[in-house]
């Protein structure tokens, strides 16, 4: 019998990439920079680094491969380590924010684009790498765009460094032009015809339409003929769809074949991610509920039907107000085509677009606007400044950000004392840049030195970094959950200090899992809605998330040492903690109005304290908030009383 390893080696040889192995290696040998284009699933991400390793490139340095998404970096590294028959984290590893799964042995390193950007801070010439592959370049994330400028610069003084830019779309000329006419290596795709179906009229409720379509396919088509992939916008939506699907399939009776529901999104616990890659058992069908991640970052085999409601969650930024929000937005034509392509990888496929043909041709943009043109740039500006890049207006951007957004970022960093009047990095700024956090959070940590409460402040920062609402509120236990929540708000001192109290109480129980359950605490990122459908998965997530807060805290503690801030505790002086928070978040301050609303200070806007906040009834005269979330109103979330020095 064949071993698993032998089987994997055979599979590698069936990938579209394989026949081009030698030609590709020759092209890499001949050119310093190469643009590589190939259909999703051809083997770019998993095979190219292995080919280069087999050809000896790892003898003089690591091969680094960037991914825009955390899940993709982890999953691909896991796959490649299997293919190479090594333990994940040894020869093959990954590195994502707050999680480094690499070792001295690592020669193939998958990482988020943001992590490679951070590596520049410690190693401006990337000396430990022999090859850098900027993968999924078409995604044009903020970090990828910045990386372009930096790696392009390095290739000039490191002729031995090989640079690969790989992308799924055929828009390769733009990349080639930018990289001084780098040659384009095309891997001919294997794409089967895809039948596209549009709806006759726009759908009022795309989630429901998606579920109905999935069930129709499942019930009317032969079970063995292929799986279903549904594109949804985020975790909450996926969880809702999962619940409804479970409920409705139960109602179908026993004659209908099994429908295996597989969610996949950025925060999905690792244990559950592997499920989407498991082959579907005979007689059953799989329905994968995915975010954009399945568009190009992850290849899922066996998909025959794609359901595309036509939306994704996208960051948008208003440079005038400095306000950033995550909105459900129509996708671009390029995205729609990537999505439909997912159904035609292994045989002819079908794509159900839950919008009209008119919508597709007339309403959708051709391409997604690069993130750099719709995001807050404070973080990037701080990183670039600490890399010694001062003239940002003349940085070699592939598509420059709006000048207004750059100015806004400079203004914020100046207000936080990270930059001086000349726009140069200050000592505070240099320290802030060490933390892989939003500048306001980094400033809060750096300021904690003065108020001698760094111990408390890094716990708060860790809890905030896990993201979203911390409290879990099952439908049948709302009263219990609310009581548990209010316990942490005793004294109504503010949400940041409540987070601190949660963390410290958990620590006192010696990080007990049971304690989390008993207190209805979770920490998954929930944007619109703090009431969640209780599923087994959520429970898994919530314990894991407290553990994650602990991991993050440990790392922040290490970084404190690096910037030479002593770990000092001042837990009884809440004013000191509030002062540190205010030092970071004063750009997010708001003043109480007569009617109980608040007015933000810098760019006046009416906002409210989120009802889940411990201060919702207290209404201090001045507050600072962590973030704004728009639901029925513009709400401030994670609020604390403002306390100036
Ligand atoms: P590309 O980067 O060109 O889109 P990949 O290298 O990601 O292609 O994938 C090539 C093939 O490897 C896929 O078709 C799939 O069969 C397999 N594969 C990739 N990742 C995984 C994984 N995590 N688990 C199982 N199989 C995988
Ligand atoms: Mg890939």
TrEMBL record:
Keywords: ATP-binding, Helicase, Hydrolase, mRNA processing, mRNA splicing, Nucleotide-binding, Spliceosome
GO biological process terms held by the UniProt record: mRNA processing; RNA splicing
Taxonomic superkingdom: Eukaryota
Protein EC: 3.6.4.13
Catalytic activity reported: ATP + H2O = ADP + phosphate + H(+)
Span of domain Helicase ATP-binding: 25-188
GO molecular function, one term: RNA helicase activity
Signal peptide (UniProt feature, chain positions): none
GO annotations of cellular component type: catalytic step 2 spliceosome
All residue ranges annotated as the Helicase C-terminal domain in the record: 211-388
Family: Belongs to the DEAD box helicase family. DEAH subfamily. PRP2 sub-subfamily.
Protein name according to UniProt: RNA helicase
Naturally occurring in which organism (per UniProt): Actinidia chinensis var. chinensis
């Amino acid at each position: 019998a064949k071993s698993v390893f032998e089987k994997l080696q055979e599979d590698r040889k069936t990938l579209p990439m394989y026949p081009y192995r030698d030609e590709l290696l020759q092209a890499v040998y001949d050119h310093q920079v190469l643009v590589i284009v190939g259909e999703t699933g051809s083997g770019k991400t998993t095979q190219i680094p292995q080919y280069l390793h087999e050809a000896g490139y790892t003898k003089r340095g690591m091969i680094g491969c960037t991914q825009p998404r955390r899940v993709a970096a982890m999953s691909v590294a896991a796959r490649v380590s299997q293919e190479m028959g090594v333990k994940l984290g040894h020869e093959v590893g990954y590195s994502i924010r707050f999680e480094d799964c690499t070792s001295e042995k690592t020669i193939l390193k998958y990482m988020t684009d943001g992590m490679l950007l951070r590596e520049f801070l410690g190693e401006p010439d990337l000396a430990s790498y022999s090859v850098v592959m900027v993968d999924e370049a078409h995604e044009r994330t903020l970090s990828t765009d910045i990386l372009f400028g930096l790696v392009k610069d390095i290739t000039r003084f490191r002729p031995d460094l090989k640079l690969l830019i790989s992308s799924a779309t055929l828009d390769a000329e733009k990349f080639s032009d930018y990289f001084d006419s780098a040659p384009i290596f095309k891997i001919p795709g294997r794409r089967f015809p895809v039948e596209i179906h549009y709806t006759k009229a726009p759908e009022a409720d795309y989630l429901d339409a998606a579920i109905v379509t999935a069930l129709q396919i499942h019930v009317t088509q032969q079970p063995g003929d292929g799986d279903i992939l549904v594109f949804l916008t985020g975790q909450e939506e996926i969880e809702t769809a999962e619940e409804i699907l479970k409920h409705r399939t139960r109602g179908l009776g026993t004659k209908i074949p099994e429908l295996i529901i597989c969610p996949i999104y950025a925060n999905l616990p690792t244990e559950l991610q592997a499920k989407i890659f498991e082959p579907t058992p005979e007689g059953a069908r799989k329905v994968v509920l995915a975010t954009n991640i399945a568009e190009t970052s992850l290849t899922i085999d066996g998909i025959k039907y794609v359901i595309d409601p036509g939306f994704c969650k996208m960051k948008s930024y208003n440079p005038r107000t400095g306000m950033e929000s995550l909105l459900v937005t129509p996708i671009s034509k390029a995205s729609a085509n990537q999505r439909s392509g997912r159904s035609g990888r292994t045989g002819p496929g079908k794509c159900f677009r839950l919008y009209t043909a008119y919508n597709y041709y007339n309403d959708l943009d051709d391409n997604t606007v690069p993130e750099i043109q719709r995001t807050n740039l404070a973080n990037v500006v701080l990183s670039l400044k600490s890399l010694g890049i001062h003239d940002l207006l003349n940085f070699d951007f592939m598509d420059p950000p709006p000048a207004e957004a750059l100015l806004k970022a400079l203004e914020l960093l100046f207000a936080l004392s990270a930059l001086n009047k000349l726009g140069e990095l200050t000592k505070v700024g240099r320290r802030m840049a060490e933390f892989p956090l939003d500048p306001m959070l980094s400033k809060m940590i750096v300021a904690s030195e003065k108020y001698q409460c760094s111990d408390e402040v890094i716990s708060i920062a860790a809890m905030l970094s896990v993201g979203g609402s911390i409290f879990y509120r099952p439908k049948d236990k709302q009263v219990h959950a609310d009581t548990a929540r209010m316990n942490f708000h005793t004294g109504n001192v503010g949400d940041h200090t409540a987070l601190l109290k949660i963390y410290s109480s958990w620590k006192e129980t010696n990080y007990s899992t049971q304690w989390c359950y008993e207190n209805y605490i979770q920490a998954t990122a929930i944007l619109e809605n703090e009431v969640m459908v209780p599923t087994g998965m959520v429970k898994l997530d919530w314990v894991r998330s407290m553990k994650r807060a602990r991991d993050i805290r440990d790392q922040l503690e290490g970084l404190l040492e690096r910037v030479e801030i002593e770990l000092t505790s001042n837990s009884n002086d809440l004013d000191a903690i509030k002062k540190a928070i205010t030092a970071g978040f004063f750009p997010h301050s708001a003043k109480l109005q007569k009617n109980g609303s608040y007015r933000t200070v810098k760019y006046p806007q009416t906002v409210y304290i989120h009802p889940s906040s411990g201060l919702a009834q207290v209404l201090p005269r001045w507050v600072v908030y962590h973030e704004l979330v728009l639901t029925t109103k513009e709400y401030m979330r994670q609020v604390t009383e403002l306390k100036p020095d």
